[in-house]
Structure formats: C-alpha cells, structure tokens
C-alpha cells in the first residue's frame, strides 16, 4: 500500500466531513445545516444564496419541494423535526433572487429538451450553466402548463415568468405547441447532440423506467436521456423530479464530453451517511412553526424555528481533547497534513510539532464511532520521520535521558528476596513512582513478601515506554530484552506493577511475560494492610491513567480497594475506558509543554473534590496545577506526610535524587547491602524556588547545574560580569549545552539563572559531528 492509499484508508475513519442526515436525505443534497444557520441569524438573503448554490430553478422548486429532509431530522425526538419546508418557502418568498447563475463559455453543443415540467426546467438550468445551447420543446400552447395551473398562493405566476426569463438569459430557447411523438424524437435525436426527455403524464413516447440505465438514465445506446416519471402513487414529486433530471443532465453532459458516464456517482440522490451527533444534554424544544401555522412564517418565527437546529456534526473527539482542539481542525484534516508533510515537506517543523504533541492516549478512538486513531497515526508518523532522521532528537531527548538514568546503576536493579536466587513474583513499581518522596514502595514490597507465597523479588528501573513514545522502537526492544534476560534468570516470575504504563509496555513489548497490577493483587489475593494510610476528607474523584483504558479488572480493583478503605468515590465525567490523559502521555509535555499544561488543567477542573490516582506522574501533574491529589498508596499505607494530597510535584531533579535514595535504602534495609552515596563535585549550590521552577520548565537538572559550576570553578570557561560580580559559565557534557548564571558567596554557588540548548549545529566544528 503506497502512502496515498494509506492516507485514504486512514481518512475514511473520520466522519466529520460526512453530510448530516438532513442533507443526505435531500435528493439534491441542499446544505440544510448551513441554511438553518443563516436563517437563525436573520440573514435570509444569505440563506437564499446558499439554496441557489444547489437548487435548480430555486424560485419554483423552493416553493414546491416536499422537504424529505424533515423526515431525517434528528431533532424529531427532541421537540419535533425542523420546519424546513416552511422556512424554505419563507426564504424564497422574502429574499431577493440572485443574479443569473454563472455559466460556462459556450461549448458548441446543442441539446433538445422534450417537456416543460420541473424535470425539464432542471435539465435546462443545469445544462445551460455548463455552456450548452438548449432548446426546450413544450407540448402546450404555453410553456409549463401544469406549473402555471397551480394556485397562486403556492406558485405565483410572476415567479414562473421570471424563471423562464432567467433561463432565456442562460441560452435556453423555449418553443411551444410541439407534438412530442416518436417521429419528433427521431428528428431531434439526429439534429441535436443530445436529447433529454421528461416522462411526465401525457408524454406519448412511452419509455418506461425499465428501459433506461438506472444510474445514467440513458435510453439504450442512443443520445437520449430520460427522467421525470410519476411516483408509484401517480403523483409528481417536485424534488424527486428535479433530482432525477439533474442526474440525467449530468450524464448527458458527460456524454457530450466523452467522459465516463458512471464514475463517482454513488452519492447522487438520497444516500446513507455515517455522520454522528451526540444528543446527550441537548434540551427538547417544541416547534415554533407548527402544522397549523400560516404557510409563510414571519421573520421572527423563522429565526426562532431555525435556532432549534442542532447544527449536526461529529467533532466529539475534538470537544474532549485539548490537543485536537488546539490545531483548529479535526482528525481527517490532520491526517492530510501529516501525510502531506511525510510525502512532500518531510520534517516541516510545524507539522512535526503537531505529530509530537499527541498524547497517544487513545481517547479519540474510544469516542469515535468509526475508531479513528490519532495515536496510531502520530506514532506511525514519528516512526517514519525517525527512520529518516527527520524527527528532531531534541524533542524527546530529555525524556530519553531520564529513562537512561532510571535504568542506570544509580537506580536500577533486579533481585530475588534475600537468601533466594529465584522468585515466584517480582514487584516492579516503575520509575516514576520510584522518584516520589514517601513513595510507599518499601512498605508495599514488605507487604507483598508477607502475603504472597513463593518469594517476591524486586526490580527498579524503567520499562522503556518513553523510547516507544519517541518512536525509538529499537531502543524500546533493547530495554525489554535487558529486562527479559534478568527476569528469566529469576525463574520467570509473575510481574506485579504499580504503573499502568509499565503494564501496557509489557503487553506490547513482551506479551509472554505475565504481568498484573498491584491493585488487582491486593484486591483479589492479599487484602488490605492492617494499618491504614491517610484519611480522605470527603469523596475522592478517581482519575484513571490513560494507559489503563482497557484494563477493566484493574479499574474495578482500584474502586474496590477505595471502598474497603471507606472512601466514597466520584466518577469523573470521563473515566475508565473514556478517561483523559494527564498531559504526560506520548511525551507530549516534552514536545508542547503549554498544550500539555492545558490538558492537565482541564482534567484538574472536572471536580471540586480531591482526586486519587494510581499513576505517580498523573498525581504529580495534577498536583502541579494545584489539584489536591492522593496516590492510592497514600491511602493504603501509612506514611510520613500528614497531608499527602497536598504534596507538591517533586520535579525532575527531586525524582532523580529520590530514585538514588530509594535504591540505597532498599539495598541497605532489605538485602543488608549498604551503598555509599555518590560524591558531589564542586561547591554547594543555593537555588531559590523561583530559579528552580525555571530550571524545571527548561528541563535542567540540579546535577547539570552542579557539573557546569564545578567545571567553571575548576578552570573551565566562565565570564565575569563586573557590574554584578556574577559569572556566566557554559559546559556541554553531552549533546546539550548549558549556561549557568551564578555568584560565589561564602564558598557557595548562588544560582541566579540557567539555560540550555538542545540543538546540533553541523559544520561548525569537528566536535559537532560526534
């Protein structure tokens, strides 16, 4: 499948551009939604212009249309279908007609139209616009006899007259008193390039619908095209006559152009639509224009009735996702933009930022009735760009450095419990929880060892999911392979994880490794610890991590554990399989921190109650937005903090420090294997909360600043500002350059600011290519 075929396959899942049901039900596909918007705004002139874009002979058909769109209106169950027919007549009656339709230059082709009812007028209108010279032959002594006989309050005579005058300006000549018989048909067939025959009652030609092609309405292999037969009940439907005539006229025009008569004709006439409009929360509103109302509603009544229109469209995923909303479109458009970038621009910064900003959470797929997946689209695009060196390493570099640190000897290890070389269970809490102050990992591990038979080992480290989110699939596989090697050496134990992202990573990268959430183990096997943790004041809103979206068993276990602790829970508007991402997923916070912050703030604002989360990063991001949030372990195990829900986001540097501290603590207290803390080089640092917050935003660790200052004070590059007495030092320990603004005070380095630059400038030096 080439790239364009793949694009079309992806696009087809987004239904936003599908017609609403009213438009699909209309044989002419009038834009009912747009018409209603104009009428609701009191713009009847604009509404008429919109009708005239689609509707042939609008002055006539607008008064005679049987409005089948009303039968499809989804407002029907909420107060009654919109009075489209009445509003259409009101618009056509009050609004001034437009100028002559724009007609193409003359084609040098002549078409005879036999008949003078709505079908014949429609064919003349459409073919006249195409630059075809039309001669319309009317059987009576006056044109349009049936239409002229209609009551004046339905079709005023002057409207029919002005319509025929308009057709005259469109190169349509009307000839009356012509006997429409077989001999005449033979004559025009030979004399004209094409013939349209309107099969209304009284037409003596006697061609039956069975004699013409149902798609093209062509009669045999001739240049004759037919439409306008009465309905099964013998009546003539204005809108159906016009639609059938339009189809025959289009075929005739293609015939004259010697192009395909059948291509791309699946949407002609009433057709199916996949459009979806959510009705939840839309109030019922009774019709303003009722069946007993006057034929022509007043302008005020028309506005009020049109205002009932729901303006049907999907956009459900956009309503719920700050990422999709931010880029001002919808998935079908994003697919085109992304694939155009991959195929043409390749690496355009605007488009790669959009690709990298998706949280890969899958909420859009859950919402979409056609299962459109922005996650699959964006991850596949990242893979494509990464494979060609176009993704931009700086976007995900910090997250991958954090992953590397979590799998370094300073934090990572995997061991069976003391005195054993293998185990039946392996507790793998995850790197983010391991970086939490008062993480409860030691307590949880001790609890599992006491409750589970067969031995419980412990593994600290990162599962590798950041590498997959960054489209570095080889690195992800290497991380899984390294875990597998150690896991096999421990006897292939069941893995118990406290992180839903870890659980999803194993399901993707090592589906044969048995993995279960800590919450299920506690709910289904061990029960609760005897000593309770923190006490919640009031109900707690449960925030499910997006990576647990389809793990219904773990979601149920979380609620069961909360219930057993006596916690009253609140379900957020979007929870369980419809849960929203906290803004961290897919490394979105690295690519677009401002947008990720909006996502977090939205989630935090969905309840006034305190939250409880089972993902450490979810908890910390919500806390960073000022939302009081517990980690579930805070409620299950006693801790050092009096109010853990008020615990602030520890930040990147603290996570690194806490991971190292946790490792040393566990090795010393569980395995009696004390480890010395690493020595810190350079002077002691003094960093204010304000400067530390800026460093967090810029992804600068305290350790990075310490290295820069240590290098500068040991004789490295630094510049003195004589006015302030402060130094500006720079150092590039890896593929990132750091600058630190500091002053030495009493032997300590007081940090005033820090900057970093994650860009490779090729060609400036030999070092740039390392």
Question: Mind explaining what this structure looks like?
Answer:
There is one protein chain. The chain has 770 residues and is an alpha/beta fold. Helices cover 43% and strands 12% of the residues. The protein has 34 helices and 19 strands. Strands 3-2-1-4-5 form a 5-stranded parallel beta sheet, with helices on both faces. A 5-stranded mixed beta sheet has the order 6-8-7-9-10, sandwiched between helices. Helix 3 packs antiparallel against helix 4. The protein is elongated.
| Principal-axes shape call | elongated
Q: What structural class do you assign from the helix and strand content?
A: alpha/beta
Uncertain regions: pLDDT < 50 for 5+ in a row? 764-770
Largest sheet at a glance? 5 strands, parallel
Instruction: Write down how many β-strands occur, each being a DSSP E stretch of 2 or more residues.
Output: 19
Briefly say what this structure is.
With 770 residues, the chain is of the alpha/beta class. The protein is 43% helix and 12% strand. A five-stranded parallel beta sheet has the order 3-2-1-4-5, with helices on both faces.
Main features:
5-stranded mixed β-sheet, 5-stranded parallel β-sheet, disordered C terminus, 12% strand, alpha/beta, single chain, 770 residues
């Amino acid at each position: 499948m080439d790239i364009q075929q793949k694009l079309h396959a992806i696009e087809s899942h987004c239904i936003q551009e599908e017609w609403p049901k009213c438009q699909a039900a209309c044989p002419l596909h009038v834009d009912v939604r747009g018409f209603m918007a104009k009428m609701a705004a009191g713009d009847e002139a604009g509404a008429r212009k919109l009708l005239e874009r689609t509707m042939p002979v609008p002055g006539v058909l607008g008064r005679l249309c049987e409005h089948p769109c009303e039968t499809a209106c989804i407002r029907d169950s909420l107060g009654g279908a919109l009075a489209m027919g009445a509003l259409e007549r009101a618009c056509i009656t009050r609004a001034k007609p437009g100028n002559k339709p724009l007609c193409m230059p003359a084609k040098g082709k002549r078409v005879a139209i036999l008949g003078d009812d709505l079908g014949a007028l429609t064919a003349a209108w459409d073919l006249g616009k195409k630059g075809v010279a039309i001669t319309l032959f009317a059987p009576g002594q006056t044109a349009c006899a049936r239409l002229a006989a209609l009551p004046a309050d339905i079709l005023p005579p002057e409207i029919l007259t002005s319509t025929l005058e308009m057709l005259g300006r469109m190169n349509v000549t009307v000839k009356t008193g012509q006997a429409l018989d077989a001999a005449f048909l033979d004559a025009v067939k030979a004399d004209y390039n094409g013939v349209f025959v309107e099969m209304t009652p009284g037409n003596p030609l006697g061609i039956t619908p069975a004699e013409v092609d149902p798609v093209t309405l062509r009669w045999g292999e001739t240049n004759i095209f037919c439409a306008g037969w009465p309905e099964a009940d013998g009546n003539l439907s204005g809108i159906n006559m016009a639609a059938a005539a339009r189809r025959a006229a289009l075929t005739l025009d293609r015939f004259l152009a010697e192009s395909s008569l059948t291509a791309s004709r699946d949407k002609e006439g009433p057709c199916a639509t996949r459009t979806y409009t959510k009705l939840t929360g839309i109030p019922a509103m009774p019709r303003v224009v009722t069946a007993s109302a006057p034929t022509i509603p007043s302008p005020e009544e028309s506005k009020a009735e049109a205002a009932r229109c729901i303006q049907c469209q999907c956009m459900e995923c956009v309503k719920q996702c700050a990422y999709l909303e931010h880029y001002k479109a919808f998935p079908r458009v994003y697919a085109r933009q992304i694939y155009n970038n991959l195929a043409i621009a390749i690496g355009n910064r605007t488009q790669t930022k959009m690709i990298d900003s998706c949280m890969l959470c899958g909420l859009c797929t859950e919402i979409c009735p056609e299962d459109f997946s922005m996650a699959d689209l964006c991850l596949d695009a990242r893979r494509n760009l990464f494979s060609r060196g176009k993704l931009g390493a700086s976007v995900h570099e910090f997250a991958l450095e954090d992953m590397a640190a979590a799998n370094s000897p300073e934090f990572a290890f995997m061991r069976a419990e003391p005195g054993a070389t293998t185990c039946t269970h392996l507790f793998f809490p995850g790197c983010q929880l391991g970086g939490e102050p008062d993480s409860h990992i030691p307590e949880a591990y001790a609890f599992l060892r006491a409750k589970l038979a067969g031995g419980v080992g412990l593994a600290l480290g990162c599962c590798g999911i950041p590498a997959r989110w960054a489209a570095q699939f080889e690195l992800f596989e290497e991380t899984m392979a390294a875990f597998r090697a150690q896991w096999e050496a421990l006897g292939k134990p069941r893995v118990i994880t406290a992180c839903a992202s870890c659980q999803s990573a194993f399901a993707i990268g090592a589906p044969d490794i048995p993995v279960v959430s800590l919450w299920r183990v506690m709910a289904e096997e061990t029960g609760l610890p005897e000593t309770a943790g923190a006490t919640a004041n009031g109900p707690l809103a449960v925030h499910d991590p997006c990576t647990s979206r389809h793990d219904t068993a773990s979601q149920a276990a979380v609620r069961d554990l909360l219930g057993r602790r006596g916690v009253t829970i609140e379900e957020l508007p979007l929870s369980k399989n419809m849960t929203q991402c906290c803004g961290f997923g897919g490394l979105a916070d690295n690519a677009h921190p401002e947008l990720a912050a909006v996502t977090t703030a939205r989630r935090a604002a969905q309840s006034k109650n305190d939250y409880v989360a089972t993902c450490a990063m979810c908890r910390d991001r919500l806390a960073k937005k000022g939302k009081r949030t517990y980690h579930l372990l805070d409620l299950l195990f006693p801790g050092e903090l009096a109010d853990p829900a008020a615990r602030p986001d520890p930040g990147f540097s603290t996570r690194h420090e806490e991971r190292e501290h946790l490792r040393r603590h566990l090795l010393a207290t569980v395995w009696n294997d004390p480890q010395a803390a690493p020595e810190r080089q350079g002077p002691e640092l003094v960093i204010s909360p304000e400067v530390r917050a800026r460093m967090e935003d810029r992804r600068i660790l305290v350790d990075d600043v310490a290295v820069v200052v240590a290098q500068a004070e040991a004789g490295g590059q630094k510049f003195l500002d004589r006015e302030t007495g402060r130094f500006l030092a720079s150092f590039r320990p890896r593929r990132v350059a750091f600058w630190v603004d500091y002053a030495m005070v009493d032997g300590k380095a007081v940090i005033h600011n820090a900057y970093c630059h994650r860009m490779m400038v090729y060609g400036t030096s030999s070092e740039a290519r390392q």
